[in-house]
Write a structure and sequence with these properties.
By secondary structure, the protein is α/β, with parallel strands linked by helices. Helices cover 35% and strands 14% of the residues. The chain is globular and about 55 Å long. InterPro entries: DUF72, UPF0759_sf.
Length: 314
């Protein structure tokens, strides 16, 4: 994932401090009470990583069997594979069977809207590809988690009405999180509250993307009492920094849980994905320890040397 990437030499100069909660977050969580058993989903964006053979996939695992192994370790995936083309129902059923046969952890797929809809059609006259997309992903059945609609860097607030109209016509029972990237969604003081209020009114979630070079996307706004966080780590050379960033997210999520947040989706990315299971497992450990999550840790076959954390969060 190259979005928000900065040169290694610049990482030390990035302020990774999480901003204060936004105004919409305060509105969304106002009057809520903590739930007894909030749900936690932690995963990656891809399963097809050859580097994970001998790390979490058994030796000699074939690429065709990577998903079979992935679902044994994680309870969710941010499914980017369907972005590049609208999936056919047969393929979705094939993936579903792999989850059925190999997972016992409540696994869910969180599919990205296909780029035909978001980037080529730009949500205009997109009824046909949307119907095809929805028809296919419905084959996931109980394994379908929320979908996320990622809009391009050049999809700015001038398209507000187009976005609102598109979201209004989606099935009301379809869980959707929206990711915007154009700077004006966050920087324009008139647009920003209007955007988040619209999502809250339509009961759509919003994605928070934590990447080094786009701190404006760490907007800290919740439009529903659920979060969908895309965390972009900087790789093994910066593992201590990435762990510290996870620690800060744990602290913030704990505050939100105490105020009534009831579901967390947390997906790990890195510019070099080979060590992402290490980062993901650290996240699982901290969520379990400090947030009361009960997500099974990753069962490593061969675990690279990890930086040892010193001290406690709280």
């Amino acid at each position: 994932m190259d979005f928000g990437k900065v040169a290694d030499s610049q990482i030390k100069d990035v302020d990774f401090t999480l901003p204060q909660d936004g105004k919409q977050t305060l509105k969304t969580l106002a009057g809520l009470k903590p739930v007894g058993h909030p749900a936690f989903y932690i995963g990656c964006a891809k399963w097809g990583r050859k580097e994970w053979v001998n790390m979490i996939y058994p030796p000699k695992t074939k690429e065709a069997d990577f998903l079979d192994e992935y679902v044994k370790h994680f309870n969710s995936i941010e499914l980017n594979a369907v972005f590049y083309s609208i999936p056919n129902a047969e393929l979705i059923r094939k993936w579903k069977v792999k989850a059925e046969e190999n997972s016992d952890n409540g696994f869910v797929f969180c599919p990205k809207f296909s780029r035909t809809i978001s980037h080529i059609k730009r949500l205009k006259d997109a009824e046909v590809p949307t119907d095809l997309y929805l028809s296919s992903i419905s084959e996931f059945g109980k394994f379908l988690g929320p979908c996320f609609l990622q809009l391009g860097d050049n999809f700015g607030p001038k398209n507000f009405d187009v976005l609102e109209n598109y979201l209004k016509h989606l099935p009301v029972d379809l869980e959707v999180f929206v990711e915007v990237r154009h700077e004006d969604w966050f920087a324009d003081d008139a647009v920003r509250p209007h955007f988040f209020e619209m999502l809250a009114r339509l009961k759509k979630g919003v994605v928070i993307t934590d990447a080094s070079g786009r701190r404006d996307c760490v907007h800290m706004e919740l439009t529903i009492p659920e979060i969908f966080i895309r965390f972009v780590g900087n790789g093994q050379a910066h593992q201590a920094s990435d762990f510290a960033r996870i620690d800060e997210w744990v602290s913030r999520i704990k505050i939100w849980l105490d105020k009534g947040l009831h579901k967390v989706y947390f997906f790990l990315h890195q510019h070099d994905e080979k060590d992402t299971p290490i980062l993901a497992n650290y996240t699982i450990q901290q969520f379990n320890k400090h947030l009361g999550a009960k997500v099974p840790e990753i069962d490593f076959i061969n675990k690279p040397e990890e930086i040892t954390k010193q001290g406690e969060l709280f």
